[in-house]
Each structure stands twice: as structure tokens, then as C-alpha cells.
Amino acid sequence: MLTSHTLERTASTLSNNATAPGAAGWQRNGKLWSSLKEVCDLLRVQLTSALGGDEFQFQHMQFKAGQRVHTIGQPFDMLYIVYSGFLKSVMIDESGNEQVLGFPMKGDMFGIDGIHSKQYSTETVALSNCEVILVPFKTFAALGRTHSELEAAIYGVMSRELVREQAMVGTLGSLSAEARVARFLVYLSDRFTEMGYSGKQFNLRMTRQEIGNYLGLTLETVSRTLSAFNAIGLICVDQRAIVLNDIPALKTLRRLPPSHTRAKQEAAKALKRAALATA
Asked: I need a labelling partner for 62 at 20 to 30 A (CA). Which of 162, 224, 233, 265 fits?
């Protein structure tokens, strides 16, 4: 098990095969490490000049698509930060049914659900080959005792993750199926833009089943909605490749305009209701 002692190394004690720190972190003994400054930059946390950025080092781990980073019930000892790649966080009920809670990506922190009970109540699975930075909670707690500003900033990051989850819960309860899918595409667009990638053209790393699970919709509804968006020109979709043609419209969409077929079906239903009312 990695301990705070093994992760807290100063630059003067790095081995001879270490390289200088940079955007990709320190390379030591064939493993990649990031300084505290690099971790904070990834989390969009500002360090004060009084706190050295290279004194503390945090190890990276690589995971292949389908591998679990942590599992439900596993003892809590780590916080995790996504360095690259895409993952999903899920809960699993007693019957083995999976509920997708989120899709961590670059710059996101996960594992905070383990703080309260000292064991993880969720599990996180790699959707693509990814790289994750390990932050031992004991190390974070020790840093917080001596650097209150850093502690407050990291708790701010945790709060940011919870606010995102709460916003999605609110979305699920108030919007139509079409609007949920539209807002999810806008959410992905915003996140890709934050990471410095195109917010208009990207590949979905999650399946339509996983999207539906996350949004409280069926696979069929997600597929049908994406096809409808494609048909009316809001997006172009080809398997997992997505191009957003009208992001403002996706942000404000409430329901899809009725197609000719749907209009006929609704008219037939209205006539049937009228006939039953007068019978």
C-alpha cells in the first residue's frame, strides 16, 4: 500500500534517473509523478508563493478500459484525480443493478464518498485507457494542518464535484427526455472546452446505455433522441462521433418539435379521447 512517506519526497532525494519536472510530471524509476503544484494546476487551484510546489510528489497509475480504480466496500485511503482519460462512477444495489453517478474526466477528483464511512460507497471504472493521480488522504490531511489555504481550496474542489451532481439531479427531475439529452451534450461540450479541446466536435466515451442510465432514460430513448437531433440538424452523429451544430438551441431546448408522423399520432389520440368522452 502506498503511504504518505513514500509519496512525500523532496527534489533533493530524487534518484539519478529522475528528469526535471514539467507538464508531464517527474519520471522516476519508470513511474510518473506529479508535484503538488502540478496537481493544483490540474484542479485549477491557485497556490500561494509560501507553499513549495515541488516538495511533495504524487504517483500516477495507469488503467486500461474496463479496469476498476476502486470498488464498493474497499477501505478508504486515497483521493483520485483524473490526469487523462474518461471513467464512470457507479453505485450497485443489492440486486446487482448499476446506477451511473458521473463521468470523471481530466481535472476531476473522485473517491470523496469514502471520507465519511472510511470505505468507498461507489466504484469507479475506466471507460478508456486513463491515468489517475493518487493523493493519500493522510498526506492531504497533514498538508491541511499546516497550510489552511490549501485545505480550503481542496475542499472547494470537493464541493464543486458535489454541486455538479446536484445540478444533474435537478435536471433529471424537471426536464423532458429530449431536454435531458440536450443538456448532457452541452455539459460535455463545456467540459471538453475546459480541458482545451473542441467543445463542438468530440467522441462519446460512454455508451448510449450508460448515458441513459445516468439520465434516467432507456437506451432506446437516448438513441431515438440523438437520431431526432440529427434529423433536424441540431447535431451530426455517427456512432460515437458527435458534432454540435447549434449549441444555443441545445441549451434552451424543452421538447422536440413534432414530426409529421408524431403529429398524426397525437391527432389520432386526440380524436380517440374525444370519441370516448362523447360515448
From this structure: 162
- List the domain boundaries for the chain: 4-170, 175-278
Give 4-170's CATH code, choosing from 1.10.10.10, 2.60.120.10, 3.40.1110.10, 2.60.40.1090: 2.60.120.10
Q: What is the CATH number of domain 175-278?
A: 1.10.10.10
Q: How far apart are CA 114 and CA 72, in angstroms?
A: 9
Between strands 109-110 and 201-203, the pairing is unpaired
**CB proximity list for 146: less than 8 A, separation 6 or greater:** none
Instruction: Read off the pTM.
Output: 0.79
Write down how long the chain is. 279
Q: Which of 198, 196, 215, 197 is nearest to 206 (CA)?
A: 215
Distance of CA 168 to the CA centre of its chain: 12
- Tell me the Cα Rg of the chain: 23
**For residue 5, how many other CB atoms are within 10 A of its CB?**
10
The pLDDT tens digits for 213-259 are 999 999 999 999 999 999 999 999 999 999 999 999 999 999 887 66
Four-CA torsion 202, 205, 209, 211, nearest 10 degrees: -60
Question: What DSSP designation does 259 have?
Answer: P
